[in-house]
Amino acid sequence: MRIDPGQHRADQPVRAGIPEHGRIPRYYAAKIELLALLDELGEGAPLPSERELAERCGVSRVTLRQAVTELVLEGRLIRRHGSRTVVAPPKLLQPLALTSYTEGVRAQGREPGRIVVTVETRPADARLAADLRLEPGEDVVHLERVLQADGERVGLESSYLSKARFPRLLDDFDPAGSLYAFLHEELDVRFGEAEERIETVLATPREALLIGTNPATPMILLHRLTWTPDGEPVERVRSLFRGDRFTFVTHLHS
């Protein structure tokens, strides 16, 4: 199989996967051909049989499986129990901005949802207390929720807020709803700025079980600390998103 290094999509690096010596790994050549096939098939369509695909790509089944596995990890294919592997839907685009998860998902015509895992009061450790400008040991409200999009589990979010600053949270807030909407609409909280750190990780066994994903699936971890316009801390959030289902986008200005 021949691949012209000059032929590439605008969202892919030039010569992606092609070593400088020009010898293209057979699994990668098969992967490129499979990508073209996925565009033809469309979302939700099942892949042809492994034998048919191996013949089409001119590779062994072992080599084909390597290409398919990479496409599954990248979120281009979905393996379903008891049925064939199918073409995945487009990834969700989540803005890196002072907007809620709910707003980001609804903007794409998808329905957000949350499964409540934990609602508790706990003492703040030294680091959390420093972030929220509390004394160590002061009570914070901890909300842990599985994030959904159209009923599919796509992430896990843990939010920490001062119980003294937001005493109505435990009594009045529906933990299955949007926390940002409640803070803004019910408590008149205004968000001024936030600091966000992003890294890639693998889910712990517990996190993988809650999200319903393979522990080998790459995850995107976001840490966010949010303040009001007056500089008062509002919340600290740890959000874990499936790397095969999310793309993050932001707008930069000079």
TrEMBL record:
A Pfam family the protein falls into: GntR
Annotated SMART domains: HTH_GNTR, UTRA
Keyword Electron transport: no
SUPFAM superfamilies cross-referenced by the UniProt entry: Chorismate lyase-like (SSF64288), Winged helix' DNA-binding domain (SSF46785)
Listed InterPro entries: Bact_HTH_transcr_reg, Chorismate_lyase_/UTRA_dom_sf, Tscrpt_reg_HTH_GntR, UTRA, WH-like_DNA-bd_sf, WH_DNA-bd_sf
Source superkingdom: Bacteria
Protein's UniProt name: GntR family transcriptional regulator
The species this protein was found in: Saccharopolyspora rosea
Organism taxonomic ancestry: Bacteria, Bacillati, Actinomycetota, Actinomycetes, Pseudonocardiales
